[in-house]
Amino acid sequence: MDALAKSEFLPREHVAQKPLVFWRPTAKTGIVSWLTTVDHKRIGFLYGLFALFFFLVGGVEALLIRLQLAVPNNHILTSAQYNEMFTMHATTMIFLSVMPLSAAFFNFIMPLQIGARDVAFPRLNAFSLWTFVAGAIILNIGWFQASGAPAGGWFGYTPLTTRQFSPHHDIDMWVMGLQLLGVASIAASLNFVVTIINLRAPGMTMMRLPVFTWMTLVTAFLIVLAFPAITIALVELMMDRLFGTNFFEVSNGGMPILWTHLFWVFGHPEVYILILPAMGIVSEILPTFARKPLFGYPIVVFSGVCIGFLGFGVWSHHMFTTGMGAMATAAFSVTTMAIAVPTGVKIFNWVGTIWGGHLQMRTPMMFAMGFIWLFMIGGFSGVMHAAAPADSQQHNSYFVVAHFHYVLIGGSLFGLLAGIHYWFPLMFGRKVSEFWGKLSFWVIFIGFNVTFFPMHFLGLNGMPRRTFTYDANMGWAQGNLIATIGAFILAIGVGIYFTVMIYTFFNGERVGRDPWDARTLEWSLPNPPPEYNYRSLPHVRARDSWWYDKHNPAESHKPEAGHDGAHAGIHMPFQSIYPFTAALGLLVGGFAVSNMDPGTGHKLIVALIGLAIVVGSIYLWSLEGNEGYHLHPEDEEPSGSGHKTH
Amino acid sequence: MDGHQSTIEVEGPVARAQLSLFLVTCWVTLVIFIIVGSVLAYATIRFKARTQADEHAEQPPQGHGNPLIELSLIGASVLALVIIAVPTLRDIRYTYDVPAGLKGDAYQVTATGYQWWFKFDYPSEQISGVGPLNTGDELVIPAGRPIHIDLRSVDVMHSFWVPKLAGKVDMIPNRANFLWLEADHPGYYWGQCAEYCGESHAVMRFRVIALAPREFEEWLDNQLQPARSVPVRSTAGAEPTAQFAALREFSQNETGSSGVFDNPSVPPLDAWRAKQFVDKGEDPALIARGKLLFAGPASEGGKTCGSCHTIRGVAGAVGSQGPDLTHVGARTTLAGSWIDNTPEQMRRWIHNPEAVKPGNKMWVNGYQLNHITLTPDDEVALVAFLQSLK
To answer: What CA–CA distances, in Å, run from A560 to A115, A375, A537?
Structure first.
């Protein structure tokens, strides 16, 4: 954990001249160092920790669902508990697990890939992290309250989620939690866009960017443009619930279909937000382990950008059964089929990358290959949904459940699990054992397919979604039992994966730099990377910059004089407590607002206190300034420089 | 995939069109899977580094791509999608509304979603002084004719799905959705709500019963009549008849709530037909007592059932919050088609609605609000009365 340990170089005499409230934390170890960190690597690590924790929470919710459905007319969960369970399983996995795990990689890896020392706005980065935690808490605290956890389904269709039909505060907490997550995501995405545009090392043109960084950029744009739609929807729902407005209030002319449109204008780009980072990771892993460049880099990048654009034109394929009319239905059917083209193109390019290579079937490669197979299957069921008349039988049935688990687990999760194995040596200096890594892959792969493949048939046999029970005479019992068994196999695989990861973190085999003989810039760093990332900013000469440097050593040893003000040292930002306190204020205020009943003055006071904390934090944050301190790493003994030797 | 709600073993033209389109997508994606999968599998095996020496060998040719291959593959993908798009557009037009040439023959019904049951109105069957004929749970239609179904909701979003006949369309408040379907031949079809609508969404179901034209007319004639009354012949003591005697314990994992009407030896449609006939051994006095409990004034022991349920011809049963029960004895299912309409299941439902169907409005807005309590004798009498309403 050396990147995350203290630096000996913080000049002790550098005391802030400003009054106490602008004291800049200097702790490099201990809890304060974590709460005040602005280092993208630490922030990425924290995102990863929270994401993996919530992955387990969502997994338990899934296992409870599967237990309830294992046999007909089961009594493991009541109807109300089951409805909370499927709502929270989806919300947790999407917003508190896959997205933050992607954010963990965006944070840790992207700046390293572009040759930067951190993101453009380090304190804003920390703010995003802590606001995400605040949102996660508000979403889950209902489990401990009388009102219960949210139970309106992860897409919260109205009028079911209006006050009349969901009178308790669970929906208010759901709304508030998602709003906070939206704030966190948008702030982080703006940060990443500015970073990628502005902080690339010299010579790192856009078309030399690693594909993962490109996907980070596209995902960030998607987040910034898509989240406003759900923000509007959530604000309108909150106003209906708290202040008696009538956006969705049918008795006063409101239109529930409005929610559906707004939600899916967000919701469809959201699924691309979930898959593009994983596609980026796979696009890094395949070339490394095939030992040749990505086939058709410009097309892969362009198709990612296309998916981003086209993703805003297909949302109503989630609404084929809402009676939009033949014209609109036809239009969205066609655009949905169109978006299959750039998605399919990527698969062709990955196959082309493997073709003619020397494939090293290490654990990250296994997960990446698993991704290709499973995402292909999920993509096919997606194409089936695009044909609207066929979709009218599949919609809201287990066929859809099968489809999106293939693309989200087989796709997103496999990509992220691959990324963890791949970048583990860079982040922590240790490598996961091949045997245990591959074992976890196979158990997960088998368990996943046993769970979700039968669901295609359950859906075609007429089993609807979100149903807490079913009858024995419907012909669904066998498929459900198989799926439940598969879910427990999957759980064992996940258990192996997590155990191995934790073991490796503390005790795993240490490895030197660049253990995979990789291609991109982040692998040129010591592992773990030092606080300041690059001692001297790299000069990029080609795509797959690190591979180029390794194979053209004469060129890369040219000294770059005076590029980074080596005499003055490397400028590092001071840590700050205010991003954390601002998020804390959001937590307090958000909790109070979402639990308000008419006539409860004390909650209003708490809400105002929360607001005061937020405003105060931001005010002090803006005044504390963006000074920092300087590090002089040439005073350090040089660690192994240059490129890896076998 | 041959269950009661199968989308594969279809029995109507709309579902058939939707199925054949699905099969087109299956074929196209299967071909793509075989081609891409084989190439992928071959490459994985052929280009694997097999020995240690192999792994550290010279880097393989560092090809960057091949625009010709790329563009050909993109072109092939577009072609594959066109193969799917053409029938898609044709079927969108076909399944959206009753085809123009058949519109004259179409029969009109309205289906309304309630938490958690389906109401069916027949606008062409007006009952003077009352309004359109309406029933709950079971939609009876003429077979071999297009049926145009207007879809409404009084509360939250629901969805009308009878897979063997047609794909679903949602019932959205404040929105005038509709669908059309047709049953090829007479039959008994299972349906279910397909949009999450709250606590008992999973058990909000319905049936569609398609009858040959003459049988349908007979059914309509009967339905248009007010409730059947069974004259009390004597004032003999109201001993419960054997069939209503014991309250059977219903175990967990009870197999199939359609167990009685889903019997391999009796086709469900025949079982439904049998339900149209009067039960043997009716006890008029018991029925009269049940009628009093149902619709009589509270001062005479009435249980206020009539404040939510209509039974045409029974004064005091004029409510419209719950299903119309004028001919409930002729239905095969109860409680949103969740349980069989046998005397035992009906008694179980009346005895403790909450245990049968969590959160149901009969419990919340009826029993709890009006503090309804029933003795076992009450239950038996009510069951006798309701089962007599053929």
So the answer is: 15, 44, 9
Q: Please state at what angle helix A601-624 crosses helix A578-594, rounded to 10 degrees.
A: 160
Instruction: Find out whether B361 and B317 touch, Cβ atoms under 8 Å.
Output: no
Q: Which chain B residue has its CA at the smallest distance from A70's CA?
A: B253
User: Quick check: A24 and A574 in contact, CB under 8 A?
Assistant: yes
pLDDT of residue A323: 95
The minimum CA-CA distance between B218 and chain A, rounded to whole Å, is 31
Tokens of A200: 């690339």
Exposed/middle/buried for residue B229 (C-beta within 10 Å: 0-12, 13-18, 19+): middle
The helix/strand/coil state of A527 is coil
Which one of A250, A326, A348 has the shortest CB-CB distance to B174?
A250
Write the pLDDT tens digit of every residue in A208-224.
999 999 999 999 999 99
CB-CB under 8 Å, B33 with A355: no
Q: Which residues of A touch B361 (CB under 8 A)?
A: none
Residue A510: phi and psi, rounded to 5, are -80, 140
Please give the distance of CA B290 from its chain centroid, rounded to a whole number.
29
Residue B333 has φ and ψ, to the nearest 5°, of -140, 160
Structural domains of chain B, ranges and CATH numbers in brackets: 101-223 (2.60.40.420), 268-387 (2.60.40.420)
Tell me how far apart the 2 most distant CA atoms of chain A are, in Å: 80
CB pairs < 8 Å spanning A and B: 313
| Mean pLDDT for the stretch of residues A41-48 | 97
List CB contacts (< 8 A) between A382 and chain B.
Answer: none
CB contacts under 8 A, B 271-300 vs A, are none
Q: Which of residues 13-42 of B touch A (CB under 8 A)?
A: 15, 17-19, 21-22, 24-26, 28-29, 32-33, 36-37, 39-40
Find the CB nearest A376 among B24, B33, B262: B33
Three-state helix/strand/coil letters over A324-392: CCHHHHHHHHHHHHHHHHHHHHHHHHHHHHHCCCCECCCHHHHHHHHHHHHHHHHHHHHHHHHCHHHHH
The answer to whether the CB of A204 falls within 8 A of the CB of A540 is yes
- Give the C-alpha separation, B228 to B56, whole Å: 90
What's the pTM value of the predicted model, to 2 decimals? 0.93
- Interface probe for A, chosen from B52, B68, B81 (most Cβ of A below 10 Å), is B81
Chain segment A393-447, per-residue pLDDT in tens: 999 999 999 999 999 999 999 999 999 999 999 999 999 999 999 999 999 999 9
Q: What share of chain A is helix, strand, coil (3-state, %, to 5)?
A: 65, 0, 30
Of B156, B159, B161, the CB nearest to A159: B156
d(CA B82, CA B155): 41
Nearest to A79 among B28, B33, B358 (CB): B358
CB contact under 8 A, B3 and A474: yes
**Spatial distance between the Cα atoms of A621 and A616, rounded to a whole number of angstroms:** 8
Read off the pLDDT of residues B140-151 as tens digits, 9 standing for 90 and up. 999 999 999 999
Q: What is the ipTM of this complex?
A: 0.94
> With contact defined as beta carbons under 8 Å apart, do B345 and B332 qualify?
no
As given in the structure block, the two tokens for residue A567 are: 């005499």
Min Cα–Cα distance to chain B from A245, Å: 17
Contacts of B161 in chain A (CB under 8 A): 396, 462, 464
- Between B73, B96, B151, which is nearest A326 by CB? B96
- B interface test, pick of A321, A347, A350, A478 with most B CB neighbours within 10 Å: A321
What is the CA A418 to chain-centroid distance, rounded?
Answer: 14
